[in-house]
């Protein structure tokens, strides 16, 4: 075999990124059903069209993965966060999803997600240092 060279770098070239990601995707889909990955975004605006927050996620392999939820301070404690999550879950069901999962940190919204029916299935202590990262999931059926 030819000599092999391993290079550590901060950021891959577009070609390297596509090769790694695309190859793994091909391999994974050859061993499972097609993932049907679709992005999802739900936004909140006030009457003057000012963006106050929203939610981002993806649906794939019959799962909803909630990646981001943010509301400006003025939009909090009005039930908007719950409405965003429930709207995302409804859309996920329409897309054929059976489950939802997300991650949150100890300085974020663990109790909020638990009240919405999410169940903690894992945690990573001291990530970031002094805090805990929680992994949660929920059945949508």
Compose a concise summary of this entry:
By secondary structure, the chain is of the alpha+beta class.
Q: Would you write up a description of this structure?
A:
The chain is an alpha+beta fold and about 140 residues long. The chain has helices spanning about 15-30, 80-95, 110-115; strands at about 40-45, 50-60, 65-70, 100-105, 120-125, 130-140. Strand 5 (about 120-125) and strand 6 form a beta hairpin. The longest helix is centred in the first third of the chain and has 17 residues, at about 15-30.
Largest sheet: 6 strands, mixed
Rg is: 19 Å
- Counting helices, strands and paired strands, the structural category is alpha+beta
- Strand line-up of the largest beta sheet: 1-2-3-4-6-5
Number of strands: 6
Helix content: 25-40%
Oligomer: single chain
Mean pLDDT: 95
Beta-strand content = 25-35%
What's the helix and strand layout?
Elements lengths: L13 H17 L7 E8 L5 E10 L2 E9 L8 H15 L4 E7 L4 H6 L3 E7 L6 E8 L2
Parallel strand pairs: 3-4
Antiparallel strand pairs: 1-2, 2-3, 4-6, 5-6
What keywords describe this structure?
141 residues; alpha+beta; 27% helix
């Amino acid at each position: 075999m030819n000599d092999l060279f391993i290079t550590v770098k901060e950021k891959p070239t577009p070609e390297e990124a596509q090769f790694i990601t695309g190859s793994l995707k091909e391999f994974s889909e050859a061993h499972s059903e097609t993932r049907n990955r679709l992005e999802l975004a739900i936004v909140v605006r006030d009457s003057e069209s000012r963006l106050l927050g929203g939610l981002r996620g993806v649906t794939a392999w019959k799962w909803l993965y909630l990646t981001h939820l943010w509301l400006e301070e003025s939009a909090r404690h009005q039930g908007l966060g719950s409405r965003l999550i429930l709207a995302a879950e409804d859309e996920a069901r329409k897309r054929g999803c059976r489950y939802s999962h997300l991650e949150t940190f100890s300085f974020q919204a663990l109790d909020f997600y638990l009240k919405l029916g999410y169940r903690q299935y894992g945690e990573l202590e001291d990530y970031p240092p002094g805090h805990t990262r929680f992994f949660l999931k929920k059945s949508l059926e």
